[in-house]
Design brief:
- The chain is mainly beta.
- Helix content is about 5%, strand content about 55%.
- The chain has a domain at about 20-120: Immunoglobulin-like (Sandwich), CATH 2.60.40.1120.
- It is built from 6 helices and 40 strands.
- The chain has a 19-stranded antiparallel β-sheet that branches.
- Strand 28 (about 435-445) and strand 29 form a beta hairpin.
Length: about 625
Amino acid sequence: MTSTNCLQQLLWTILCMLPLCLNAQKNTVSGNIKDAANGEDLIGATVSVKELPGTGISSNVYGFYALSLPPGNYTLRVQYMGFTALEERVDLTTGSQTLNLQMYSSDAQLAEVEIKAVRDDQNISKNEMSVIRLSPKDIKSVPVLFGEPDILKTIQLLPGVQSAGEGSSGFFVRGGAADHNLILLDEAPVYNASHLLGFFSVFNSDALKDVTLYKGNMPAEFGGRASSVLDIRMKEGNNKKLGVSGGLGLIASKLTIEAPIVQDKGSFMISGRRTYADLFLKLSKEESIRKSHLYFYDFNLKANYQLSERDRLFVSGYFGRDDFGLRDLFGFGWGNATATLRWNHLYGEKLFSNTSAIFSNYKYDIFLKADSTSTLSINSGIRDLNFKQDFGWFLDENHTVKFGANMIYHRFKPGKIDAGAGSSFNSTVLDDRFALEGSAYLQDSWTITPKFSAEIGMRYSWFNYLGAGTAYTFDDAGEIIEEKTYADWESIQQYGGWEPRLAMRFQWNKTSSLKASLNRNYQYMHLLSNSTTGTPTDIWMPSTNNIEPQIADQIALGYFRNFADNAFEFSIETYYKRMDNLIDYRNGADLFFNKTVESELVYGKGEAYGVELLLRKNRGRLRGLGELHPFPYPARF
């Protein structure tokens, strides 16, 4: 039996031995934690029990928390970075209670009021490692190109993250490739996150609420990429009052509107951004310049409504596009569109449900006019339909269990060429490719003792490459030796595998802890590109009968220490990552509009290892972080 199989068996044994029965002698306090100023849910706020040291929990991504405690009277202490700590008494002598909480930003306090420093030791007390969270304030405080705050440029300053190149929004995490990163906007994947060929990202910081980068130790609910997950959540809108904000930048203007639908029950947020450099082209004396265009725009919207005490509905979307054109001779455009519909429901006091239906579409278009009678248009893209069901079970003060499943239908559109009337070119269409990708997971966050805790999870992922289409088999030289045609929904090739997740924390004292983690990830989708930085015309391909899924195994060990009453965070992490089935290209590979593009690929293995140091100042007038990653690059063989 291999070491991987032994580890999987061990984790399954531990998960099956978890105490999955409720203690009838315990009552539950649960509710939502919100920002008092605008009603936004607070993600990751910590709720601890003053009378029971070591007992506590964090709110989920919708601000929900639940704690099961023996009957009695308790004091709940609630903390969140940038907000004044809150203490609330709760009576659990007679039964469970619902307690919704509102927190006030510490920045909103009057100067005459002395604010005692709030302890902020989540980096010490939580299981998670190789995880960095950023707020819009963090993003806007970093100097950027043309004064336009940019989340992707900000995370490239973090340890373990390297830029894919100057003027590129692509990034590498711990030796992985640019396509090894899963970028999610309100759960919807974003396949090309760049504006202006990489000088800006598609994410308008005015529309964002929370950004989390998982460089390793991914929760079991995430998967599908070998290196990292960038989970971005949009604002929900101000449910207290109307708010309007905006600005004029050197190259772009933006406007954000937030307002209640029904006060304290629902709200919406609309945010738009557009460059206006193309407007100045019309002032040129040259006709060719006046008729050219160069701009991008993006549009974010989100709305939510409280249907009942136990039901809440969310709708969110993103639409963005870049458009370049030289008169009527050449045009190039690309863009993303996403939509997410989510329903939150609370079963009892402890079981939280989130049901999501997600749509994502990326496409690019090229227009060429060779002469007065010859025109050519080219387009390509990828489209996803995704259904997810996630549960959070707040079992008791020592166990928070998450489980769920999802299914994604992928449609890959490799390319289509339309030749106009009188064109010397021939119209050509590459066959679309289809696939189903599914997964199921179970994870338990287990507080074993006040000093020792673990996060144990298992995920199973599955991929089915489908017809209709023709599948080719190649020899070692890339020559076709067999081809077979498949009907609609006929299975061509299937893959699947177990993905164990484990994270452990031992807290030495109130200011330091030691953490370790390991995880495995399968990646079934691949970006084919002749450029290391990536371009809008790169091709996304599924795993096929020739392209096997990429597999990454990573282990990490870290020491975390806080200083000056948690005003400074310090950490040092070391990691090792092994990768299988990495994709490379034959000499002179032709990737563009090639129906047998798989013949241009070769495969290999790789490894990456490194040491990362982080120093972060969380309070005071001067805040920020310093980083060092002396060995971040993969050695391939």
